[in-house]
Predict the structure.
Amino acid sequence: MSLTLLALAGAAPIALVFVLLVGVRWSAARAMGAGWFLASALGLALWRMETAWWAAAAVYGALQALQIILIVFGAILLMNHVQRSGAITTIRWHFTRITKDARVQLLLIGLGFVTLMEGAAGFGTPGALAAPLLIGLGFPPLAGAVFGLFFNAPQPPFGAAGTPVIGGVGAVIDEGVLGPEMTVPEFLDAVTGHTAIVTGSSMAFWGLVAVFLLTYWFGREEERSLRGAVRSTAEVMPLAFFLGAVTGLTQFVVAWFLGPELPNMASGFLVLGVGIFAVRRGFLLPKRAWSFPPRDFWLKSWLGLRGSAPPKDKAGKEMPVILAWAPYLLVLLVLMVTRWPGLGMADWLRERTLDIDRILGQDLSFSLEYLYSPGVLPFIPVALLTAVMHRMSRAEVAVVWSTSLRQIVSPAVTLIVAVSMTQVIIQSATNTIGEPGMMQALSRVVASGVGSALPSVAPLIGMLGSFMTGSNTSSNVLFSVLQHDAALDVGVSATIVVALQNAGGGIGNLVSVLNVAAICGVIRMSGMESEILRKLIVPALFLAVFAGALGLLMVRFGPVLY
């Protein structure tokens, strides 16, 4: 059979998932399940995988998903504790007291709060928290939805404590994919560093772009033009570049030296601290405080289909501000101690593993570093400590745990099926017909089609994955091996191309139908999804093109690590 036909067959499960998710609007779990059945049928019938090998590959994939599920559950559990205790309400109250300039509020919340929430919780939480917060500060509901999503584009590649790298890339790129050239930890570290070049550079100017779009879309009538928006944006340009540089540089340095778990939390905390300190002392602040037009002059589309704003999120000081931020500070502290080179904690934690050798008697083995998982340490212990610090009752804690367990069921099923499907596709390389496996055939066709331009295309492939699934992690599960193999076929750095896949997965969150629908549900603007997507598609494509151009420069001038 020709390589092109093999590639088309190998792409069929992913194409089916895309059609069912976007076209038919099935749930992610159902769509992934259909893809799993098609991948299994193709593996057994067309590639003639041995039954025992196919079953072992499917089980291996399901086990690999446990790493991701642990982190997701820990992040959900911690978030539910701080929401139930009133900590989030206090944090919202705190923001209302800092500045009256909507442009500055947007920078602090977008670069600081959203980045921090992505590092602590991920999985759609930042936008769901930021949108009501912005509305509570007086932003039009449409602006709250748009910018809640807008800032959740450069940060998702590191997600909740590095989940897209550790659980996404790490779930499918193992020793069997890499071979002897590089160990899995070395590969993931290199991917983390190269990802940070893209995301850190993006953060440096993303706040300025946000301010321009804020005034262009939601300013007074004279500002809703190119010249008017540029004039209003120029006033806050120094502060926007300063905060963007702090965010991006911190993310870059932390990623290169400490790994994928900390870049978002560290940069979010730092820019919040530096930003609040600077704003309160008038450093780089514009001379005039910018605000939206009077409510009577708001366009109807700004308020949603019903023409009225959703109720504002209540904000009040339910505890000392430092106590409200304490859980996130503890998570940051524990992650730094356990990941800092030279302290020896990381090696000790990684030695504690749960091992399953030769799954179903086949040459596939699974190992889970359970103590090294951020879900186990620090998320769960800090969540338990939060209940004590915030004086939550036993009944409140019981509600949090039951809610968290219910919330984890759907993403857990989706992840198990998705990683299992991907492993069946990858392991079809071991077959009885002597042909390349599904992923190998697909990657070779992609490589021959785009050639040396692969780095510029890689972010778009990652963007497609998260557009389909609403998850940077799921996008990496689906496409990391494809990107890795295509890079080797083309002869460019695999670590850079997989990093571009990871960065592109974050950008796709900006326009994911699932994420847009979730935001609209949170702020009661269902039916406005198309309006939001129309506003965000151009910024998403702009950021993807920027990532691709930067990727070409990295491949051309950067050191070759693998």
Q: What stands out?
A: The mean pLDDT is 88. The CA atoms of residues 334 and 445 lie 45 Å apart.
